[in-house]
Structure formats: structure tokens, C-alpha cells
Amino acid sequence: MARFPFPAIALSLLLAAPAAWAEDISKVNGSIEVSAGKAYGDLDTVNGGISIGERAQTGDASTVNGGIKVGAGARVGSLETVNGAIRLERGVQTSGGIETVNGSIFVDRGSTIGGGIETVNGAIGLVETQVSGDIETVNGDVTVGIGSVVGGGITISRASGWFQSTPRRKPRVVIGPRAVVHGPLEFEREVRLYVHRSARTGKITGAEPVVFDTDTAPQD
Q1: Minimal CA–CA distance to 87: which of 173, 146, 61, 150?
Q2: How confident is the model at residue 126, as a pLDDT?
Q3: If the chain, 220 residues long, is cut into consecutive pieces of 10 residues, what is the mean pLDDT of each piece?
Q4: Which residue range forms the structural domain that includes residue 78?
Q5: Boundary of a domain, candidates 73, 105, 137
Q6: Are 103 and 85 in contact (CB under 8 A)?
Q7: How many C-beta atoms surround the C-beta of residue 4 within 10 A?
Q8: Strand-by-strand arrangement of the 25-26 sheet
């Protein structure tokens, strides 16, 4: 009997499965907490944080004013907030992307992100993480830490519209040891770029990389 590879789309559907059959949680005021090992559908609040326990399964999680924390080994959909940080512990899998406007994003070891990562004002940090899409920011620092792989590219855009008056500090971008960025690195504003000698990236435009050999990048 012939063997067929497990399609990537089937994996995405499997990761998102809780949204199809589990209960959604929706609030206006108040935080949402999912206990370890539990399964829920989409999680949605306006004023409050979202906490997802270890090994829990959920659909998409979104809030406006509040942070999102995902425990180790959880499987979730996309994660989105406007004013708040997003933090993923070890071994988290998302079937979608991660996005915030004002807040940092950190993803710990062994995690897999099924989309891109985007913020406007806030740092982005990855450690041994697989990202399917692009990384985009305007004013945030970006660290693609040791052993991380980004399937897309990295873009730091020029501030425009509501963000034109933001401080003109130079974002710090670090591509760490054995990290890989398959797509281009495009910088529309001045940045400080550090690339480890063992790292691999796509074409770099808008910045001159500083190559380093140590475990951590040089200080500015």
C-alpha cells in the first residue's frame, strides 16, 4: 500500500480543531483564564487579559486592553491584542499569527508559529522557535535568537500616519547563533543590525550588518 505524507493543511486543521467543537468565551470587561489541559473555542475580551494554561487547546484569542499568556505545550489559534504583551512558554503551537500594537512579543523554545509575527511598538524575541510567516514592526527591537527559523522575511517599516510622531530611536535587530531567516531583511528606517557568523539570512537592504562570533550580540 502506498504511503502519503501528512498534508500541512491537515496539521493546521488539527491544531485549530478545538474552535470547531468547544465552547467559545466572549466578554467585554474581565479577564479570561483557561485551565491547564482544558479545551475551548475562540477567546475574546475587550478589557482584560487572557491566560491559557499548559497543554490547553483553544481557537483564536484576542483582546484590546490586556496581555496574553500561553502556557507550555498549549495548542492555540491566532493571538491578537492592541495594548498588551504576548508571551508564549515552551513548546506552544499556534495555527495562526501573533499580533500586537503596543506591547512586546516573546516566544520560548520549541514553539511553532503557524503565521507571521507583527507589532508596532514593542520588542519581538524568539528562542529556538519556528515561524512560518514574516516578522514586521515599526519601532520594536527584533531578536531572532539561537536556533530560530523564520520562513519569511523581516521588515521594519517607516513610521506613518498616527505613528509619525513616535521617537526616532534606532531599533536593534539581532540574528543569533544558528538562526535562519529565509526571506529578505528590509529596513525602511535606520537600524542597528547584528548577524552571527553562523546565521543565514536572505538579502539585506537598508542596513549594513555587524557580524559577531560571541554568544550574544555586542552592546550598542
Answers
A1: 61
A2: 98
A3: 41 47 90 96 97 98 98 98 98 98 97 97 97 97 98 91 61 98 97 98 97 92
A4: 16-105
A5: 105
A6: yes
A7: 6
A8: 25-26, 43-44, 61-62, 79-80, 98-99, 117-118, 135-137, 154-156, 185-187, 204-205
167 occurs within a structural domain: yes
Q: How many domains does the chain have?
A: 2
Give the per-residue pLDDT at 169.
83
Per-residue confidence (pLDDT) for residue 73, from 0 to 100: 98
Note the pLDDT of residue 170.
Answer: 92
162 exposure class (CB count in 10 Å sphere: 0-12, 13-18, 19+)? exposed
Single out the residue of 76, 153, 152, 62 nearest to residue 107, CA to CA.
76
> What SS3 class is residue 51?
strand
Query: Given 61, 79, 105, which residue is the final one in a domain?
Result: 105
Question: Which residues is 107 bridged to in the sheet?
Answer: 88, 126
pLDDT for 5 equals 42
Q: Which of 18, 40, 31 is nearest to 69 (CA)?
A: 31
pLDDT value, residue 161: 61
Tell me the CA end-to-end span of the chain in Å, nearest whole number.
59
| Adjacency order of strands within the sheet including 172-175 | 32-34, 50-52, 68-70, 86-88, 105-107, 124-126, 142-144, 172-175, 192-196, 210-212
